[in-house]
Amino acid sequence: MADPNLHAPDLDRLETALLEAIESLGPIEPTGASGPAARRRPADPIRDGSRLTVQMADSLFDAQLQSRHLDHAARWLRAKGLGYYTIGSAGHEGNAAIAAALRPTDPALLHYRSGGFYLARSAAVRQARLAGARDVLAGMLALAEEPIAGGRHKVFGHPELDIIPQTSTIASHLPRAVGVAFAIDRARRLGLPTRWSDDAIAVCSFGDASVNHSTAQGALNTAGYTAHNGIGLPLLFVCEDNGWGISVPSPVRWVEATLAHRPGIRYASADGSDLADAYDKASELAEWVRSERRPAVLHLRTVRYMGHAGTDVESGYRSASSLRADLERDPLLGTARLLVAAGIATPAELVERYLAGRREIRTLAIDLSTRRTLETAAEVMAPLSPRRPTSVASRSLAAASTDDRRAFFGAKLPEEEGGLTLAENINRALGDVLLSMPHSMVFGEDVGVKGGVYGVTRGLAKKAGAGRVFDTLLDEQSILGLALGAGVSGLLPIPEIQYLAYLHNAEDQLRGEAASLSFFSNGAYRNPLVVRIAGLAYQKGFGGHFHNDDAVAVLRDIPGLVIASPGHPSDAAPMLRSCVAAADVDGTVSVFLEPIALYHTRDLHQPDDGGWTAPYVAPHRWGGAQVPIGQGRVARQGDDVLIVTWANGLYLSLRAARRLAARGITARVFDLRWLAPMPIDEMLGHANEIGKVLVVDETRRSGGVGEGIVSGLAERGYSGAIERLAAEDSFIPLGDAANLVLVGEDDIVAGALRLLGERRP
Questions:
Q1: Any long-range contacts for 150-156 (C-beta under 8 Å, 24+ apart)?
Q2: What phi and psi, each to the nearest 5 degrees, are found at residue 681?
C-alpha cells in the first residue's frame, strides 16, 4: 500500500518561477509571412527558417517536462528516505533536441545530465509514453526491475534505445565513444557485422568541467588524430556547458577556446535554452558527421538548476543575482515561448500541462516506491562475470582449416617448428586467433609494422592485414578506449599495453569502464576484451621501474577481471585461447600478463637444454592441452615442501627445486597460472597433503599476490607451516641493484630449508 505521506503538492522556487514566467508570456504574434492570426500546422517549422517542426517541438517539450519532473521527484523521494540519486538534468533539457537530430539507432553514451535526450529517444522508439520516466524512477529507487542496471546504479542506458550506460567517473566514457565510432567504420571496411548500422554515427555527451580532465583531452586528441590520418570516425561529441563543475565556475569562454580549434574536429555552438537553435545546429552537424565520417563537437550552452546534487547548497558559492538571472534562461520557458508563438498553445494550457505532468510523475513514483529491490549478494553479483566453462572450452578449440593455416603461416605450420619460446608461442596463438576469428583485432603501440618492442606480434600485420593488426598513437587510455568501443560494438579486441607501468595512467578504463559494463547493464551490454600486457621484473641489462614493474594489486581488486600470467611456453597458447574464447562467449574482460624476462628465454638449468621452450600444439590436440580459467598445475612433483608461485617465480623455483633435490629434498612446485580467479582450492589440497608451504611471490610484499595466497589458504582452514617470500616494497632500480629488492633463487632455497628446519648450506 502506498505511503500517504508521499503526497507533496507544494511547488518549489524553481517551479514557481517557471510557471509564473510562462503565465506572463501572454499572446505572442507569430512571425513571418503567415500573418499575425495564423496557427502553424504540425508539419510547419516552429519558427521561420528552422528545421524543427511544430509537432517535433511539442513532442520534445513533453520529454523536457518529464525530465524536469523527474529531477524534482528525485529530491522528493530522497526526502522521504526512498530515493538514492539526486544528480539531475534541470537546465540541460535542451539536449532532447540532440536526440531528435539523430537516428534512434545511433549508439549513444550519455552524460548524467542528459535526461532530456534519454526521454526523447525513449518516446521515439517505445509506444508507452512514460516508459522512459518509469526507467529513470526505477533507477532512483534502485528497483530490481529497472531495465538497465537492475537496481545496481542509476544510469541512462537501454539496449532497445542503443544507449550504452555510463558510470559517473569524469569523462571516462569518452575513450570508449571514440572506440565505438572507430568500430563502426572499421567493421564496415572489413565487411564485419556490428550491433550498429553501417552508416551509424556515435554520440557522446559530457559536461564543461569534464573538458579539463586528461581523459577527455586524450579522447578529443585521439579523435582528431584519427581523422587527420584519414581513418573514418563518425562521432558527435556534445559538451553540455552549464558553466559549473560542482562549485567551481568554468572560466568565461574557456570551453569554446579549448574546443573550437581542435585539428580534425569540426566545431559548432548552440543555445541549449532555445530548442529550435539546438535542433538546427545538431541536425546540421549530425548530417555532416554521417556523410563525412569525421568527428565533430557541439558546444551546447546550458544552465544548471538545483545545484550539483541534492546535498549541494548553491547559495554558499553563488550570488542571489546570478541565480535569479539563470531563471530567465530556463529551456522549458524557451520551448513554451516557441509553442505560444506558433499559436498552438496558450500560456494557461502550458501551465496546466506542467502541473498535470507533475502529478502523473508523482503518481508513478508512488506506485513504484513499493517495488522489490535487490535482496542477496548473489543477485547483486549475477551479471558481474558470467562463466560458461563448457561453452568456453568448446570455443577455444575453434581453428581454421589446414589449408587456410598454411596460407597464413607459410610452408611450415607452428606445430612443425619444434621448441618455441614464450614469445613465439604467443605469436603463433595470436595468428591462429586472427585466422579463426575474423572479428578479432590486435593493436597497440608498435604492434603493427615493427611487431612489438619484443617482437611478440612480428609478422602478424603482414599476414592478417593492416586493418586487423595495427599501430595506435601512444596513449594507453585511448588504446583501451578503442578496445572497449570495439568490444561493445561486437568485435573482439586484443590490445597491447607495452609495459605494465604504462597501464597505471589508464587503469580506470579497466576498473570503471570495462569491468563494470556488464554489471551496470545487467548483462545487456558487454565488452569482450583480452588486454595483453608485457610486465613484471627480472630483465637483465635493461632496468628501471618503468620496464620492470611488479605492481599488480590494482588489477587484482577489480571485480570480475580475469588475470592470466603464463610462465612456461607450453601454457602461453592454451591460456590465451581460453581468454579469447571467454571474451567471445561470455564477454569476459581479461588481462594477459606476460613476463618480459621470459619472452626469449630458452634454457632452464644449463645452456642449450631447451628447458624453457615448448612445441606449439596442433589444433587437433588442443582439447588435451586446454587450460581452463582458474586452473593451476603441478610443474614439478615432490613431497617435502610445496612451493606456490607463478611467472618468473616459476622459473626461479624450478631451478631452486633442482638444487634442493641435490640435498635429498623433493619440492612440489605449483604454478598458479591465474592470478584471478586464483586456484586456491587446488592449492589447498596440495598444502594439506604436504603441510609445509613456501609462497614465492615476485610482486611486492604489501599488496602482492602472495597476500591472497596466504589468506586464501588460511580462510579455507590450512593450519600447516607457511612462509612467504616477496619483493621489497620498493620501485625496481637499474642494474644489479634490482637483485637487492627482488626474490632470488638463493632466497627460495633458504626459505625451503627454514620450513624443513635445516640450516642454509
A1: 150/374, 150/383, 150/522, 151/373, 151/374, 152/374, 152/380, 152/519, 152/520, 152/522, 153/520, 154/84, 154/85, 155/112, 155/520, 156/110, 156/112, 156/114, 156/115, 156/117, 156/118
A2: -65, -40
Q: Strands (DSSP E) along 75-169, which ranges?
A: 108-109, 163-164
What's this model's pTM, rounded to 2 decimal places?
A: 0.94
Give the closest residue to 195 by CA, choosing from 161, 236, 226. Answer: 161
- The distance of Cα 426 from the centroid of its chain, to the nearest Å, equals 25
Q: Which amino acid is at 659?
A: R
Cell of 225: 588524430
**Mean per-residue pLDDT pooled into runs of 10, the chain (761 residues):** 49 94 78 58 95 97 98 93 92 98 98 96 94 97 95 94 87 96 97 96 96 95 96 97 92 95 97 98 98 98 93 89 93 98 95 96 95 95 90 94 96 95 98 97 96 96 96 95 97 96 92 92 94 93 77 93 98 98 97 97 96 97 95 97 98 98 97 97 97 97 95 96 96 88 96 84 46
- Residue 296: CB atoms within 10 A of its CB come to 23
Count CA atoms within 13 Å of residue 644 on its CB side.
Answer: 32
What's the first-to-final CA gap in the chain, in angstroms? Answer: 78
Q: Is 356 helix (H, G, I), strand (E, B) or coil?
A: helix
**Res 9: pLDDT:** 61
DSSP one-letter string for 185-197: HHHHHHT---SS-
Backbone region of residue 617 per phi and psi (left: phi > 0; alpha: psi in -120 to 50; beta: other values): beta
Name 531's Cβ contacts closer than 8 Å, sequence gap at least 6.
Answer: 480, 483, 494, 495, 496, 497, 510, 589, 590, 591, 592
149 vs 374: CA distance, rounded Å: 11
Q: How far is CA 6 from CA 77, 164, 233, 397, in A?
A: 8, 32, 48, 58
Determine the Cα–Cα distance for residues 60 and 549; give it in Å rounded to an integer.
53
Please provide the size of the chain in residues: 761
CB contact at 8 A, 670 and 644: yes
Q: What pLDDT does 27 receive?
A: 63
CB hemisphere CA count around 671 (13 angstroms): 24
What's the chain's Rg over C-alpha atoms?
Answer: 30
Q: Which of 303, 301, 205, 216 is nearest to 258 (CA)?
A: 216
Nearest to 328 by CA among 317, 337, 315: 337
Q: Which of 64, 100, 635, 658 is nearest to 361 (CA)?
A: 64
- Joined grid coordinates for residue 377: 549478494
